[in-house]
Amino acid sequence: MPPPQGARSALRTARPAPGAASHPPLPPTEQEASPRRSWRASVPRRFPLPDCALARPCPGGMLAAAARGLARAALRAGAGPAAVQARLTGSSAKETRPTVRPKNEVEQKQLCAFGEYVAEIMPKYIQQVQVTCFNELELLIHPDGIIPVLTFLRDHTNAQFKSLADLTAVDVPSRQYRFEIVYNLLSLRFNSRIRVKTYTDELTPIDSAVSVHKAADWYEREVWDMFGVFFANHPDLRRILTDYGFEGHPFRKDFPLSGYVEVRYDDEVKRVVAEPVELAQEFRKFDLNSPWEAFPAYRPAPETLKIEAGAKKEDAK
After folding, report:
1. Which of 53, 138, 223, 275 is most buried (most C-beta within 10 Å)?
2. What CATH number should be reported for the domain whose range is 105-232?
3. Non-local CB neighbours of 104 within 8 Å, separated by 6+ positions
4. Where is this region: Disordered (predicted)?
């Protein structure tokens, strides 16, 4: 047997919607007479529509109507005209730019302490320890200390840098040792990173890190291909990005943009051939004239008739 109408309205009033504000219940007589009124009383109107949205469209468009509605809502809430103007323009006197990475002094001290600890243990190879402004620890080492330092950072209990995230190089031709080799290491155990840097030149090879980190295999091939840094004891040191027959190393600062060799398909021999690059400037004719006087300089000279002396005498006779 279904419950009477009054019981249904009482249950509906006793369980308001989640998050609804508390309202005084209506008398039972009014609840039975208008059950929908009790439901409207239990659900608040969280997002009141502006008056312009309920009326006919405003001449300023939808954005202007929304702005006027926000201004009216702020005025009803008791905000002054200055606060309303700041809210509409999006500016405030207390607005400050957020910091992308706040400075953590505790973390910086820990990194400095760990860098000093590593430098005390291996003073023969570590030449400098520094912490960047973004709390990144860097070890500047001698080229002969690549294998010992990487092995120490991988196996030591307080380090555990067992993952080689990246290996790259930087070319600075103004330095005596123009190439800077950078190793980015990651410790999953302590959730920290460290950067190891060393140096070399075009002719001096450095030891390969494949024996310590297997991930250094293709990274060192890429550095050899792009910069020309030779890694000793590498299992398979050959080009990895450029094509066969490519000459030079593209990431060097003295490498021309056009390159030295171009690769194309030859229809006569039915294969890909590599030929030296022919620069367009080799076919140009440069002179000391102004660019505005270049056209008269290239005009063909008028032909002049050359009459020999013997012919003049015969004509005269």
Report:
1. 223
2. 3.30.460.80
3. 135
4. 1-42
Q: pTM of whole model > 0.85?
A: no
* Cβ(201)–Cβ(176) below 8 Å: yes
Contact by Cβ (8 Å): 118, 129: yes
Rounded to an integer, what is the distance from CA 72 to the centroid of its chain?
A: 43
Residues 124-159 have pLDDT tens digits of 999 999 998 888 899 999 999 999 999 999 999 999
The sign of the CA dihedral 86, 89, 90, 94 is negative
CA angle 214, 216, 217 (to 5 degrees): 80
**Cβ pair 230, 150 in contact under 8 A:** no
Report in angstroms the alpha-carbon separations of 36 from 2, 32, 57, 132. Answer: 19, 9, 31, 66
Least confident window among 79-83, 163-167, 246-250, 264-268? 79-83
Q: Domain-by-domain residue ranges, the chain?
A: 26-83, 105-232
**Cα–Cα distance measured from residue 192 to residue 185, given in angstroms and rounded to the nearest whole number:** 9
Structure-token pair, residue 10:
């009482």
Q: Which residues neighbour 7 within 8 Å (Cβ) at sequence distance 6 or greater? A: none
